[in-house]
Amino acid sequence: MRDQLRDILDVRTQRPQAIAEAAARRGRRAGLLGDDGQLFIIAADHPARGALRVAERPMAMADRAGLLERMSVALGRPGVDGVLAAADIIEDLLLLGLLDDKVVIGSMNRGGLAGTAFEIDDRFTGYDAATIARMNFDGGKMLFRIAPDDPATAQTMESCARAVSDLAMHGLIAMVEPFIAHRVDGRVRNDLSPEAVTRSIAVAAGLGTTSAYTWLKLPVVDDMEQVLAASTLPALLLGGEVTADTGAVFERWRKALRMPSVRGLVAGRTLLFPPDGDVAAAVDAAVSLVRG
What we know:
CATH superfamily: Aldolase class I
Mean pLDDT: 94
Number of domains: 1
Oligomer: single chain
Radius of gyration: 18 Å
CATH architecture: Alpha-Beta Barrel
């Protein structure tokens, strides 16, 4: 992968237009979902928000060659539908030829940098709907954190609503990841109680001029069946943090994937940085859950 990284640098230096050319000739699959009606996406948009930590390794995602190698393994496994990432990673994957017949979701708001005073101010510093459409991708993802004590939430909500509407005008999926969030000892923490997640779903589902193309990206929490009853929108499970007890994580995914409105999984660090280091085995185990 290090040699390929040099090739990518050569292209970026000498022929940057090759990125748009690669997007134009990329084979795009006929539909978003697989034949089984499910969707399995590998996420790697964390670095663009400065979130490089995996478990006890604060800079685990900072090695781009290593991350791309893990992404290459994951995207090559049978049953993996595509990728969710910011522009730089998607463009690297395009130049590596790894996105043919894959679903591509561009990450849109990465401005709420992890650990900063302005973290809740999730500015749209990444993809916009027009570029996602021009690049022939399948949709855009946005993080929507509702912090009751932070006025920056209002601007984030307005921006997310506009992005939902803009994506819908292009017939593209808007993947909304909502949370109720609070500062605890100076750090932003997501409230994963069933009540908080239910409230976040109710607000997220109403964003924009239409919900026709809106999907939700949700954590697996207690009382998941009741939580999902808050909306008729399709939902994808998010992977969450890496833990030593991957068996427990997978079991929670398995149970939630049985619910009718859950149409798949979007997971990143849990699968790209498993405790035993075996990316292929972790991805294959997740595929078996999604594909049933």
